[in-house]
Amino acid sequence: MKAFGLLAACLALPGCASVGVEPWQRDVLARPEMSLDANPIDAAIDDHIYFSKEASSGGRGFGGGGCGCN
Question: What is the DSSP letter of 70?
Fold first, then answer.
């Protein structure tokens, strides 16, 4: 059983060698629509609405707000 586990680990190990971004893929990943925030104007409007309603700013990454509800 140990030999089978060792053999399976040795066969699975080379599968991690191809993880990563190849040089010819970087142009696709560098496009503006691939960013985490593809439309910064919409994000700015959402932030403005959020801090206007909650009386706080920068609360995008965590719960709560200016009302003291939680």
Answer: -
Contact 51, 57 (CB under 8 A): yes
**pTM score, whole prediction:** 0.32
Amino acid, res. 33: E
Measured CA to CA, the distance from residue 54 to residue 66 in angstroms comes to: 5
What is the spatial distance between Cα 67 and Cα 56, in angstroms, rounded to a whole number? 9
Q: What is the pLDDT of residue 64?
A: 53
DSSP string across 2-69: HHHHHHHHHHHGGGGTT-S--GGGHHHHTSGGGSSSS-HHHHHHHHHHHHHHHS-SSTTSSS--TT--
